[in-house]
Amino acid sequence: MSSQYNYHYEPASSMASRRIIEEDSYQTTPQATDTDTIPLYGQVTSEDLSSTFDPEIIDMQLKEEMLRRKVALQESKGAIVEVTCTSEVSEAVQFARKNHIKFVTKAGGHSTTGSSASHGGLVISLTKMRHVVTDPASKTVCVQGGAIWDDVNESTAPYGLAVVGSTASHTGVAGPTLGGGFGWLTGRYGLIADNLLSVRMVLADGTIVEASDESHQDLFWAVRGAGQAFGIVTELVFRAHDLAAPVYGGTLIFTVDRLPGILEFAKRFDEQQDEDSGLFFGLAAPSAADRTAILVLPFYNGSQEKADEFFAPLLSLSPSMNKTSMMSYKELNRVANVDPVPEGRKCFSGTKVYMPLDKHLVNDLWEHFDAIMEKYPRSRHSVLMFELIPYGKTIEVPIDATACADRGRYYNVAILLCWYDPGHDAAMHTYLRALLSKIKKSDCYAGQKENVQAYANFAGERP
Ligand SMILES: Cc1cc2nc3c(=O)[nH]c(=O)nc-3n(C[C@H](O)[C@H](O)[C@H](O)COP(=O)(O)OP(=O)(O)OC[C@H]3O[C@@H](n4cnc5c(N)ncnc54)[C@H](O)[C@@H]3O)c2cc1C
């Protein structure tokens, strides 16, 4: 870390707080890759870990048979080291290398590819590293590598500041940032990575470095977009922005007959490119509704009057439920959170679309999605969302300024399917691919002409 940002969290004695636990099961996406194609460098055993880590603090039940890669991460047991500071991360990396043990890093646990889970290897979990320090004088915020956006909002809110973070506050900070990252404030302030000032990280040989515009510039270029591949980030320093007043947001639900009006509003939204706005809309099956409904999450960083004026054409479509209001940014950032379904199974993927959307495509997606919900009533946490964030600030940054090439006049689509019965795994993955494929065959699909086919952090499944 350059001396400019002088925040470090290194507890004097950290060994006592380090624990190794059995791998937990909450992941957004099961991995479906064939085990046989994955080279394994070694499997973790209790003895291996005891030789480096204090045996008294080992309470894991390591399953020796471990690697059943089939479909569900829940079936794959490995070991987790819960590190508490940068030097422990370095120690864990060096241990894994020395013993030829495959390892991964975990922060918020929202990976859409399962890349923060290991099948028999070591998970270096940063979930105990969630400190955040806000410096109101310099308007900078230093965040430990395992923090989630809720932690950041808690720290910045008392100073009337906010950092550009994910739209969902329960995702990790590091994962989204290292892949580029977007959120409700992206329209005004750019991608999450564009607001990153420096990182402290542990490289593959255990070396600890600080990367910024002043030091290790090439590494700093790389972590902003391709960061998950270059090391373990233990601290991130962000630029913060003034955001003292409440913002407008919440949820609206419409019946499907309002879809043409909503698509018309989305077209208008795209044409306006109002930097203070945001609009997520798509398909969801709330339990109160008989059929798949249209879920809309509006956002406006401005007064109630301005928000009312901006969203007037949408609100005039008479939503069947309107739970929007002025609220703190901290609250707003929780609106898009997806409740974890611990025993549930999930798959996630996304792609890119241009506006205006073809109404035949969206009708077709509705019919397909609705049929899935009809057939599998316990899949009702599933959503298909078009995520409209104004792109002006994102495309202002030259494509080669960072490793994030995901800058264009297009928008993300995210598809999350949730279910419970392992017997439905194959069907659900097939449905997800079918929905993606419909979008990719349409004229709205942006990936054909652009640098990217999907946001790297949404690339959970391919058609
Ligand atoms: C419900 C949901 C909502 C989402 N909303 C948004 C959104 O609004 N905006 C957006 O940009 N993205 C969003 N995403 C995508 C999100 O950015 C990625 O899933 C992201 O990788 C999650 O990061 P994490 O730390 O929570 O997950 P993890 O599973 O812990 O990590 C994800 C990846 O990042 C790596 N990683 C994590 N921490 C570190 C670290 N400290 N150093 C190095 N590598 C690390 C992991 O090894 C893994 O490869 C959403 C995803 C979900 C499931």
UniProtKB/TrEMBL annotation:
Per the entry, which co-factors are needed? FAD
Q: Output the SUPFAM superfamilies linked to this UniProt entry.
A: FAD-binding/transporter-associated domain-like (SSF56176)
Keyword Chaperone annotated: no
| Source taxon at top rank | Eukaryota
Q: Which family does it belong to?
A: Belongs to the oxygen-dependent FAD-linked oxidoreductase family.
PANTHER family for the chain: BINDING OXIDOREDUCTASE, PUTATIVE (AFU_ORTHOLOGUE AFUA_1G17690)-RELATED, FAD-BINDING PCMH-TYPE DOMAIN-CONTAINING PROTEIN
Q: Which organism is it from?
A: Aspergillus thermomutatus (Neosartorya pseudofischeri)
State the organism's lineage.
Answer: Eukaryota, Fungi, Dikarya, Ascomycota, Pezizomycotina
The leader peptide range reads none
What residue ranges carry the coiled-coil annotation? none
Q: Which Pfam families does the protein's record reference? A: FAD_binding_4 (PF01565)
UniProt keyword annotations, A-Z: FAD, Flavoprotein, Oxidoreductase
User: Under which name does UniProt file this protein?
Assistant: FAD-binding PCMH-type domain-containing protein
Q: Where is the FAD-binding PCMH-type domain?
A: 73-243
Q: GO molecular function terms here?
A: FAD binding; oxidoreductase activity
